[in-house]
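Students often ask why we bother encoding 3D structure as a string. The short answer is that it lets us treat folding as translation between two languages. Here is a chain of 131 residues written in the first language.
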Amino acid sequence: MQNFVNLQFTYCLWGLVPGSLTNESNPFNDCSHAYLAATKALLDRLQRKSDNPAAARELAMRIDTDMLRAQSALEICMHSVEPFNTAEIIMPEWAGVVFNPFVLLVYAICLAAVAALFAVEFWPRKPKKAV
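And here it is in the second language, the structure alphabet:
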């Protein structure tokens, strides 16, 4: 189950797409609901079958409390009622992705920064000559 959660979360671009949970027409909404449903199922399983169910129960209670405070506990999305199958990864609807130039610029800058960090870290260095 944990493997499915990790795979699904990765396919949903790690939850970084703005509005993926709050906007039902977002192409990543169905994908995001899949990894959240799997995470909830994993937490439920940990409450029933883990070596330390108290920690899992405490985490579940904290999540429920936070959702009640944010008034999101009673909101139901069209994807919330769909069952999920851990043998099937839910992909984002790429046809619905609108490429906003500003968002692409931000992602390009982030990618360039990561590439620069890797280049600095792994660039071959010449040994200094002995005098």
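Translate back mentally: The chain has one domain: 2-97. Keep this in mind for the problem set.
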